[in-house]
Amino acid sequence: MRIDLNSDLGEGFGPWSMGDDAAMLDVVSTANIACGFHAGDPDTMRRTLKLAKARGVAVGAHPGYQDLIGFGRRRIPGLTETEVESLVAYQIGAMAALCALEGHPMTHVKTHGALGNVCADDDAMALAVGRAIRAVDRNLAFMVMPGTATARAADRLGLTPINEIYADRTYADTFNLSPRTEPGAVLHDADLVVARVLTMVRENCLTSTSGRRLSVPIGSVCVHGDTPGAVAMARRLRQGLEASGWTIGSSVVPGPEPGR
Predict the structure, then answer these.
(1) Number of folded domains in the chain?
(2) Which residues pair with 109 in a beta bridge?
(3) pTM for this prediction
(4) Residue 96, domain CATH
(5) Percent of the chain predicted with pLDDT > 90
């Protein structure tokens, strides 16, 4: 009866903020921090790390496509597996450097936006991401979408998987996320979100919009930090989980810093 609650944070840039990271870090047990390609910059990353460390929140790298204007939510076709390996390894390395400055080692890697959607459907791209993770630090866990190529890549490469579900998104029949362009793909009703998550974690099962079901152990629940009312929804979800007997805590204990 232990479950991780995570959010994608550090997604501002320079003087521009995205969401309320400080408030969200009072609620979640894990933060996935943007690494400068889809959002974030060194100072934003470090500030977010400092806040997370002060609250005992686990941290992971959140690499995405190099697309600040599109917030990493636009697909970039034509990238080779080698190019994907490079862009992911580069961002994990940046995160590792700032974690070293703050003395708060990262625990995992989670892909962002369009990169994550591509990797959920494309085994070759998921393996490219997995190889980048393993090359930088094989002790890092891979936060994956159950039933998709990312989960298969973690298994094939011997990476520790964190099976993640989304509180505020619906699922297609592939168990990738429904496209944001579809009506109802992003959920805003907190009561609905809480009831839906409680069913998923109780039954260890995902259900697509058409009713297809996938039985899978669930390790972490994500609430997006950039949606309106995100903090209030996260608080409501945490209250609902705890009232149902769940303890909120990170899925992974940090290992030694690379090179130590």
Answers:
(1) 1
(2) 61, 142
(3) 0.93
(4) 3.20.20.370
(5) 86
